[in-house]
Amino acid sequence: MSFKSGFIGIIGPPNVGKSTLLNRIMGTKLAIVSPKPQTTRNRILGVFHQDDCQMVFMDTPGIHRTRTALHKSMVDAAFAAFHEVDIILMMVEAGAREDPAVPSIINGLKSIKKPLFLGVNKIDKVEKERILPILGDYGERLPFDAMIPISALKGYGVDVLLRRLKLRLKPGPEFFPPDMDTDQSEAFMVSEIIREKIYQYLSQELPYACAVTVSRIEDVPEKNLVSIGAEIHVETESQKGIFIGRGGKMIKNLGRSARLELEALFEARVYLDLAVRLEKNWSKDTRALKRLGY
Ligand SMILES: Nc1nc2c(ncn2[C@@H]2O[C@H](COP(=O)(O)OP(=O)(O)OP(=O)(O)O)[C@@H](O)[C@H]2O)c(=O)[nH]1
Ligand SMILES: [Mg+2]
């Protein structure tokens, strides 16, 4: 039997659980997750290895109406995935009102001649009877290969999904070596972990007003220490004030929470030097976006 492989794009509206699914499939945290929409801003690969196949999952930013250059860059990345992958896994969530982005996603998929899967996520939140009508509705709108109810959070249905996806893989090469589970750089992963804590600690529009860059990751092996320097870029002076907090309390708490997760990632003590920088209108300026990784 020949080896099979393929790229699988996980696409859909914001907040439906795309990143949660990637993490569940991989059995490790590759993508950050939050209860707020528009968490993922870049494409994130997870390489799922089996003896006879390799499935490369591509998590993408949630598709939504765009406002700023940042949002455009996010949505462009998601739509570009339609063309870059071999199989598309559209995700929606059961038990929520249909997201306003769904019609445009369906429209975009109509011209794509690729195996198309639907993952109806968060079934742990709804009564069983409510799932069938959702499948019926989507089945009328697009010719899905399979529509699979899942719970990315609890793991329900994920095995079935993987088995069905595997059946549609074509013979192909091992794209990545067996010990590689993502293409993300260390610096990117560090910046994402910090960004996740920002979603946890700051409310309303603040997480959306910031970008995180990492300027230094230094190993100090003799001390089993990793020394990290990172910057949070915000758009206004008042945002900067909120990020720092009274007596520096906010940045301290946020930094501590990020540090604990980074210590688990690096399996070492971490020294995290976190600074807040004013970078006016970065989310609207395409040159600034490039510099900040979008
Ligand atoms: N109850 C329930 N919650 C889930 C499930 N999957 C994800 N969630 C929650 O839904 C929220 C959004 O999850 P994410 O994985 O960040 O969603 P996403 O689609 O990647 O969102 P964006 O990156 O913003 O597009 C988080 O609070 C998750 O814990 C599920 O199967 N059941
Ligand atoms: Mg996400």
Summarize the helix and strand pattern as letters: EHEEHEHEHEHEHEEHHEH
Specify the CATH class of the largest domain: Alpha Beta
CATH architecture tag of the largest domain: 3-Layer(aba) Sandwich
Radius of gyration: 20 Å
- Low-pLDDT residue intervals, each spanning 5 or more residues: none
CATH H-level homologous superfamily name of the largest domain: P-loop containing nucleotide triphosphate hydrolases
Small-molecule binders: guanosine-5'-triphosphate, magnesium ion
| Count of the domains | 2
Q: What percentage of residues falls in helices of 4 or more residues? A: 25-40%
Beta-sheet strand percentage?
A: 15-25%
Structural class: alpha/beta
Describe this structure in words.
This protein is of the alpha/beta class and 294 residues long. It has two domains: 4-171, Rossmann fold, CATH 3.40.50; 186-291, GMP Synthetase, Chain A, domain 3, CATH 3.30.300. Helices cover 35% and strands 24% of the residues. The protein contains nine helices and ten strands. Strands 1, 2, 3, 4, 5, 6 and 7 form a seven-stranded mixed sheet that branches. Strands 8-9-10 form a three-stranded mixed sheet. α6 (186-201) crosses α8. The protein is globular, with a radius of gyration of 20 Å. The protein starts with a strand and ends with a helix. The model has no long low-confidence stretch (mean pLDDT 96). Bound molecules: guanosine-5'-triphosphate (GTP) and magnesium ion.
